[in-house]
């Protein structure tokens, strides 16, 4: 992983509107190196919009986003080279095989050919896609598609990983593997921001959680700090209290 | 099933696809297109029946013209309805839910037939209705009951038989593959109809003896609902009654067959949402040396594996190139001008059929243009370079073939080729921009990567800018264009294409990707 020494993600006062609806309202958060941050919120709370703004797929109406030291607005190409996104529904080419798709993504990120080929093969093997990697993606199951998207996001070993409901469609071994990959990524100094509805996963996987409601952060911190003086409370209890009643 | 409630919901959905939120929706474009087609066919039939009347042709000749008009509609309906029924299974997100619901198979089929009504009525409204109305006008009117029965037969028989055939086929083959195969058949049928029409009609109208040529139209096939419908409308006495009875029997029989097949097989239909099997390919994980190489390799893979797209493209390129030959009897052209006209019409196809599909072919994966560090401008440039190179090769091959066919000298061929280059550049520029703005990233039919509105805009833009190039070619005279004008036209075309590419790049750079 290319280390820049900067924090993988800094979002400062991000606002994004769709017509009269404010999906994200002056949201600020950061992901530090070596940290996995859980991004929680009810449906429509603004998680996906935030992740899409942070990855450059949506423009911000106001605020600043910095990816591993690069300002997304001023240096978009540098910032985008430093992040990997696993969207809620992957962007795949149906008529390419997973191998061909990864080769294309490697070219988009201008990775050295030999190193990219080795990394792609390694990811295909680890994600259990190697034996299907010459089949076109149109024949893949939901889980296999998700694995192809994860491989594409990890291919260039970015300092920041953004994942939107990454466990969708994954079977238990694959879900476990993904969690291991995220931990490895964090141990290597990367940062991870992962949105999920699976509170038990967030509880066990994340170092810190950010709870969103109606486009604003309503709570942020380690599970212990969110529990406060009631140690018996689960993350679910905290979530229901703070963000669970919808947007 | 509460049929009334379901029909009300269908009606609501259909109404909203045409008009909702106080403004027109995509469905309006399909209606406008159908009405435009109906107008064009009405003019054709008015001309044909008028010519027969002037010539004092026997009644049988008029019935044959009407019958062949109905037959053309029936062929389009047969393929179109089969495609529509299969598409309803492929694309319908509600099929799984309906199969799981306590709905009887015949009710489910009825529901699907209701859903597909707007699409299956298209050729009836566009071709059969104007044919019957024009026939009625030329013959002092027709019986309104017979009129309705004849048109209903043309609608019901192909739709019912299409359903009866599609249901067992969908159990045998993956829906996506089946759909592609039928789409190709539909393209080939359209190609045949187009070639016959564009070569036959101008020659017929330019002929000194239109009536004699119309009287020589071959007899109608005896066992065709189109023939029965034509004779039911046209023939008097026992023959007309027999034809009417055949229409009614054919409609009832076909519908009964469709419902019987549905009752037996529909419940066991595999949900079409099941993924296509996918194909095994020999792709390398090693990336291409350059970004341009990576794009080229990917595009070759995407196009070569989407063979319905490829076949459709070849058919359309051929049709457009041959278009000037169709009007040659009406407006004779010297060889050099004819070749230039053929190349200009080819560039319309390059823009309309290739240029507009370059970006939509990527579907939602176009998001990589914004997600990756490549950026929209470089993305569009790479795609433009790739499609431009392909177009130059096609254009050069067409120049050589067309030039050799009319015995142009090598210098004349080169002159025509260089003249067509800026036309191709502007056509591709417009095509890329239209594809970027009006694409439907969720397309299922490779012939409909743009919505109906997008296709209309594309056709109008291409025809307008093509007309400019044809007019320029005509103004430059019958001989070679010459270097001075070639440079002027080339630099103008390059400038327009560059402006269009810049706008396309900005469109792609600013496109936002919300959750699907």
In short:
With 247 residues, chain A is of the alpha/beta class. Chain A has helices at 47-55, 76-81, 98-108, 113-126, 142-154, 172-187, 199-205, 223-227, 235-242; strands at residues 9-18, 21-31, 36-41, 62-67, 70-71, 83-86, 160-164, 191-195, 208-213, 216-221. Chain A has nine helices and ten strands.
Word description of this protein:
- The complex is a heterodimer of chains A (247) and B (516).
- Chain A is of the alpha/beta class and 247 residues long.
- Chain A has 2 domains: 1-82 and 159-176 and 191-247, P-loop containing nucleotide triphosphate hydrolases (Rossmann fold, 3-Layer(aba) Sandwich), CATH 3.40.50.300; 90-157, no CATH class.
- Helices cover 36% and strands 25% of the residues of chain A.
- Chain A has 9 helices and 10 strands.
- In chain A, helix 3 packs across helix 4.
- The longest helix of chain A is centred in the C-terminal third of the chain and has 16 residues, at 172-187.
- Chain A is globular, with a radius of gyration of 18 Å.
- Chain B folds into 2 domains: 3-12 and 26-268, no CATH class; 291-510, no CATH class.
- Chain B has a two-stranded antiparallel sheet.
- In chain B, strand 1 and strand 2 form a beta hairpin.
- In chain B, helix 1 packs parallel to helix 5 (105-115).
- The interface between A and B is large, with 53 and 46 residues.
């Amino acid at each position: 992983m290319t280390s820049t020494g900067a924090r993988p993600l800094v979002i400062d006062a991000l606002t994004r509107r769709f017509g009269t609806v404010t999906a994200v309202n002056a949201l600020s958060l950061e992901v530090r190196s070596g940290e996995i941050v859980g991004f929680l919120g009810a449906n429509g709370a603004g998680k996906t919009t935030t992740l899409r703004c942070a990855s450059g797929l949506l423009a911000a109406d106001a605020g600043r986003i910095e990816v591993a030291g690069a300002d997304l607005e001023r240096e978009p190409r540098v910032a985008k080279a430093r992040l990997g996104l696993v969207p809620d529904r992957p962007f795949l080419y149906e008529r390419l095989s997973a191998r061909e798709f990864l080769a294309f993504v490697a070219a988009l990120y201008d990775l050295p050919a030999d190193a990219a080929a080795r990394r792609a093969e390694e990811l295909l093997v680890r994600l259990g896609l190697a034996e299907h990697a010459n089949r076109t993606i149109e024949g893949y199951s939901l889980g296999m598609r998700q694995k192809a998207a994860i491989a594409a996001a990890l291919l260039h070993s970015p300092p920041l990983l953004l994942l939107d409901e990454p466990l969708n469609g994954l079977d238990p071994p694959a879900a476990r593997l993904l969690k291991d990959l995220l931990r490895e990524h964090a141990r290597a100094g990367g940062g991870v921001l992962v949105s999920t509805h699976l509170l038990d996963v967030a509880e066990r996987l994340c170092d810190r959680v950010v709870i969103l409601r109606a486009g604003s952060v309503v709570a942020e911190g380690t599970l212990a700090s969110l529990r406060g003086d009631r140690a018996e409370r689960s993350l679910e209890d905290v979530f229901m209290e703070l963000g669970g009643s919808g947007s | 099933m509460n049929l009334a409630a379901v029909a009300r919901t269908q009606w609501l959905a259909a109404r909203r696809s045409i008009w909702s939120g106080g403004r027109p929706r995509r469905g309006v474009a399909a209606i406008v297109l159908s009405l435009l087609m109906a107008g064009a066919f009405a003019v054709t039939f008015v001309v044909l029946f008028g010519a027969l009347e002037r010539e004092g042709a026997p009644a049988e000749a008029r019935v044959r013209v009407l019958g062949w008009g109905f037959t053309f509609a029936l062929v389009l309906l047969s393929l179109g309805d089969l495609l529509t029924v299969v598409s309803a299974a492929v694309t319908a997100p509600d099929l799984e839910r309906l199969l799981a619901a306590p709905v009887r198979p015949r009710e489910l089929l009825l529901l699907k037939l209701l859903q597909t009504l707007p699409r299956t009525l298209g050729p009836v409204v566009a071709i059969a209705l104007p044919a019957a109305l024009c026939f009625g006008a030329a013959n002092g009117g027709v019986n309104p009951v017979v009129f309705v029965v004849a048109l209903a037969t043309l609608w019901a028989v192909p739709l019912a038989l299409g359903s009866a055939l599609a249901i067992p086929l969908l159990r045998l083959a993956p829906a996506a593959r089946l759909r592609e195969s039928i789409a190709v058949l539909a393209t080939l049928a359209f190609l045949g109809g187009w070639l016959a029409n564009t070569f036959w009609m101008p020659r017929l109208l330019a002929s000194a003896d239109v009536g004699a040529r119309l009287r020589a139209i071959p007899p109608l096939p005896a066992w065709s609902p189109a023939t029965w419908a034509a004779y039911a409308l046209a023939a008097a006495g026992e023959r007309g009654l027999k034809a009417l009875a055949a229409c009614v029997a054919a409609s009832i029989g076909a519908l009964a067959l469709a419902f019987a097949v549905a009752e037996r097989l529909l419940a066991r239909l595999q949900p079409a949402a099941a993924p296509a099997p996918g194909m095994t390919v020999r792709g390398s994980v090693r990336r291409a040396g350059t970004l341009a190489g990576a794009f080229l390799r990917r595009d070759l893979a995407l196009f070569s594996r989407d063979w319905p797209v490829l076949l459709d493209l070849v058919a359309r390129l051929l049709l457009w190139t041959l278009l000037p030959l169709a009007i040659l009897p009406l407006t004779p052209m010297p060889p050099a001008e004819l070749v230039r006209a053929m190349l200009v019409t080819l560039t319309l196809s390059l823009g309309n059929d290739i240029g507009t599909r370059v970006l939509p072919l990527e579907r939602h994966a176009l998001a990589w243009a914004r997600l990756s560090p490549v950026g929209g401008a470089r993305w569009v440039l790479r795609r433009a370079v790739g499609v431009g190179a392909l177009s130059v090769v096609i254009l050069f091959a067409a120049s050589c073939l067309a030039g050799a066919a009319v015995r142009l000298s090598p210098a004349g061929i080169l002159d025509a080729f260089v003249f067509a280059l800026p036309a191709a550049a502007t056509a591709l520029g417009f095509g890329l921009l239209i594809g970027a703005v009006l694409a439907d990233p969720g397309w299922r039919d490779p012939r409909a990567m743009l919505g109906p509105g997008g296709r209309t805009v594309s056709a109008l833009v291409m025809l307008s800018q093509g007309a400019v190039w044809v007019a320029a070619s005509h103004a430059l005279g019958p001989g070679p264009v010459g270097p001075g004008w070639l440079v002027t036209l080339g630099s103008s075309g390059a400038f327009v294409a560059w402006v269009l590419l810049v706008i396309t790049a900005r469109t792609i750079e600013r496109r936002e990707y919300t959750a699907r």
